[in-house]
Structure formats: structure tokens, C-alpha cells
Amino acid sequence: MELIFQPWPWCISGFLIACIMLVLLLMGKKFGMSSNLRTFCAACGAGKASSFFQFDWKSDKWNLLVVIGAMLGGFVASHYLSNGEIPAISEATKVSLAHINIASENGYLPKELFSISALSDIKTILILIVGGLLIGFGARYAGGCTSGHAISGLSNLQLPSLIAVIGFFIGGLFMIHVLFPLIF
Amino acid sequence: MKQVIYILIGFFFGIVMYKSEAASWFRIYEMFQFQSFHMYGIIGTALAFGIVFVQVIKHYKIKSIDGNPIVILPKEKSFSRYMIGGIIFGLGWALAGACPGPIFVLVGAGFLPVVIVLASATVGTFLYGIIKDKLPH
Q1: A89–B25 CB contact, under 8 Å
Q2: Residue A164: which of B2, B85, B91 has the nearest Cβ?
Q3: pTM (two decimals)
Q4: Which of B89, B45, B94 is nearest to A144 (CA)?
Q5: CB–CB of B66/B121 below 8 Å?
Q6: What integer pLDDT is reported at residue A86 of this predicted model?
Q7: Are A10 and B132 an interchain contact pair (Cβ–Cβ within 8 Å)?
Q8: Where are the extended beta strands (E) located within chain B?
Q9: Quick one: which of A140, A138, A125, A133 has its CA closest to A167?
Q10: Phi–psi pair at B69, nearest 5 degrees
Q11: What ipTM goes with this model?
């Protein structure tokens, strides 16, 4: 039982993620999280604005159920399966964080960005909004996100997914190494 | 009944994302700094087993529970959409420190500011749908 409350090792977690993909394939579905955002747009009537949202979104209802489950899982894991430890990041990362004024003795997420009090700073709100816009726009442009490309697509040895994942890292590295020192 | 299974799959996914710390901003930051093996270990292990699972499905022509063959449709051939879209996604992934799966998990975990990320990601998806025909694909 104690093992469950501690952070899970990467090898167990990685194996379990592959199992989730396998179960979805066996159910005749596929593992992809960002397509839910398109489904959600379509369900809200975005089809009036663009043909991109004119599809039978009801056939993707199963994935919205996966999302509801993921939210419940996040609730249960954070409230009942954790001992409140902060992620054991490396010493080098703690030094890097000090340079951008983010405390390493923090929570599961940095309080500087993800606490209610941080929202009183307009800059925090802008970071969250711009981050979200880029995620939503980029995921659909690339036709998938981490789950659809890095896990599902690469598991199927698809070249498009490899290109997308290389793109993910070019964007991520540019953000952390070039833009973060300017933003924070 | 099937609906319950989908919720359970998501529920399990949410727990794995949270407990593996793949949903933590700190782990994403650390990954892009190349300062820990943790995230690479998670993705690498998932991929190693994922490749084996997909190959086994293909080799033995395993059918889904509906009795239909499991087909993974190949993505359309292109370079620009995957590269440009991928870079845009990567910028957001690093800035918000979460990709779509963990965003849902973190909202469930009660981090209210992540609701802003989720809402703007939905708006970003909508914007793509509006201007997609003007973009190189």
C-alpha cells in the first residue's frame, strides 16, 4: 500500500500507459487526448463557423467519457493516493529554477503559476492563456498531441508522428532555453 | 456497460498521469532541461511496450471486441503540418508545463488555474478550425 502513495517509478508508469493504449485499441478505439477539444468545439456548435467541426461528434463520445474518467482519476490520485510530496526533481533543475525565480520547495505544480493568489498577476493569466492557445492550436495543426503522436503514432512506427515529436521538442526547447529567461 | 469501461480507462489514465508526475510542470521543465531521465524513461518505456503491442496485434491480426479488425489508419503524408504544428504545440507544452491529457487530470485534481489553460486550449482548437485552410499543410 505504501508503494501506491509514493511517486510511481517511470518504468511502471510507462508500461501502464502502453497498457491503456492497448486496451483502447482492443476496444476498437485509439489513444488520443487532444481530439477531445475538437469534439468539444463541435458539440458546442462550432460547425456553424467551420467545416472542420462538422463531423459526427457523437461517435467520439466515448473519448469524452475517458476525459471524465481522467478528471476523476486526477481527483482521487491527488486527494487519496498521495502523501503531498513534491516531485523529486534533480539538483540541477533546482538551480535552473532559481534563475527564473521559481521556488523548488513548492507543490505538485509551482505556486508561482498555479495558485489562486498567482492569478492576481496579469502576467500569470497571460502565460496560462497563451500556453493553452498554443497547445490547442498546435495539437490540431499537427494532428495530435503527446498521446496521439509520441505514444500511439510512434508505437505504430509512423513517420508523420516522428516529425511531429521532433517539432514538439524544437518548440519546447526553444521555449525553455530562449523564451523562459525573457518571460520570467 | 461500455460507457463505464471508458470512464474506468480514463480514471486509470488519470491516476497514472498524476502518480508518475508526468502531469507536473516541474517534470516537463526538467525534461526540456535534459536534467533527469524520468520523463524520457516514462515515454521510452511506454513506447517500447507500445511498439511490441502494436506489432503483436498486426502479426496475429487480433480483432477488437466488436469483432472488427484493429486498423491503425496511417496519417496523411506531409512535412510542414507536423513540423510547424509540432513546434507550436511544443511551445505551449513547455510554457504551460502540461499537454492535453495532464490538463484534464490537473483540472480534476483541483488546480483551478489549469481551467484557464483548458479553456484557452479549446479556443486555440477553434481558431485552428477557422483558419486551417489558409495554413500550409
Answers
A1: no
A2: B85
A3: 0.96
A4: B89
A5: no
A6: 85
A7: no
A8: none
A9: A138
A10: -65, 145
A11: 0.96
